[in-house]
Design goal:
transmembrane helix, transmembrane, Sugar phosphate transporter domain-containing protein, mainly alpha, TPT_transporter, globular
């Protein structure tokens, strides 16, 4: 990677980390002040679409209708990830959400078992998985049952997040099968198309009837949280795609897990909205460290697999030359 590319990757990753932390915090307060989750996510998407259309229209590039159709496969996972994240934050503490999200690489690994050429499992990878599971068990062992109310939404969020990351990596990475769509174009498509299933869900759960009361009960502070969540939503929609296109999916998962240290620290020691027992703090740290170790172990296996593929290339070329 060149110096310029390293600089761009650093800016992309730093921007995403700031937006990620802000999104988690602002969503936590916004959903309490405005408890109509589909409408809140739709507002965030609408603001992002407006921002792309007003300020980034010159950089929006969509190669073909086929590229749009391919990217549409990502949209349900993107929308599901946002909505299930809001619902998880609505019913569970942030620390529970971030601890169990650390287990997402396990789901990713399970799906990859069905790939034609799945990645080889190594002892360090299995050890890291055991560390993550053990840490999560430590964290939940000291939790009151009332705090586990949103755990179903957390697991659903993991499912959507893994699907989103795997599909985005497939369609953004230069060494895979990338679509001919600019980052701003992808951001626009994610949010514009994502509002369609949201409106359907709003109709099914009759959320339209709840909106007037939710708006009427909004305080000044609540309006601030909703506005901030919308603004940060614009940032994370773009920076997530930007960072994902610069680094591997595994490295991105490592960053996601490392970012969780900051969120747990803020909730437990700055906001004090959640009191964590010492064993829960230990469990959270062990789980997140396990996630980071898993990412590093996986990167090592991926590098080994790429090296083997590179070794085979010259051999093939030599055989072809002999035939000629």
């Amino acid at each position: 990677m060149s110096f310029l590319n390293m600089g761009e990757a650093t800016i992309a990753i730093s921007s995403w980390m700031v937006c990620s932390i802000g999104m988690m915090l602002f969503n936590k307060f916004a959903i309490k002040a405005f408890p109509v989750e589909c409408t809140l996510v739709a507002l965030q998407m609408g603001v992002t679409v407006l921002a792309m259309a007003l300020f980034c229209f010159r950089s929006i590039k969509i190669g073909s209708f086929y590229d749009v159709l391919r990217w549409t496969m990502v949209v349900p996972f993107f929308t599901g990830m946002l909505l299930s994240s809001i619902l998880a934050l609505k019913f569970a503490p942030m620390s529970l959400v971030v601890v169990f999200r650390t287990l997402s690489p396990m789901a990713s690994l399970l799906i990859e078992r069905f790939y034609p050429d799945p990645l080889r499992l190594s002892a360090p990878m299995l050890g890291a998985i055991a560390t993550m599971v053990g840490g999560a068990a430590l964290y939940t062992s000291a939790m009151h049952k009332s705090g586990l109310g949103g755990i179903g939404w957390v697991f659903l969020n993991i499912f959507f997040a893994v699907g989103d990351r795997l599909l985005q990596r497939l369609m953004l990475a230069k060494d895979q099968s990338p679509v001919d769509i600019s980052k701003t174009g992808i951001t626009l498509l994610n949010n514009l198309e994502g509002m369609v299933p949201l409106v359907v869900v709003m109709g099914i759960k009759n959320e339209f009837a709840e909106i007037p009361e939710a708006v009427a009960s909004l305080s000044a502070a609540g309006i601030v949280w909703v506005v901030l969540s919308c603004l940060v939503g614009v940032g994370i929609s773009y920076t997530g795609i930007w960072a994902q296109s610069m680094i591997s999916a595994t490295s991105f998962l490592v960053l996601v897990n490392a970012n969780k240290f900051v969120i747990i620290f803020i909730e437990a020691f700055c906001l004090r909205t959640k009191s964590l027992a010492p064993i829960q703090v230990v469990g959270a740290i062990v789980t997140i460290l396990g996630g980071v170790l898993y990412g590093k172990a996986r990167e090592s296996i991926e590098a080994e697999a790429q090296a083997k593929m590179a070794e085979r290339q010259p051999l093939v070329a030599k055989k072809d030359n002999c035939k000629v």
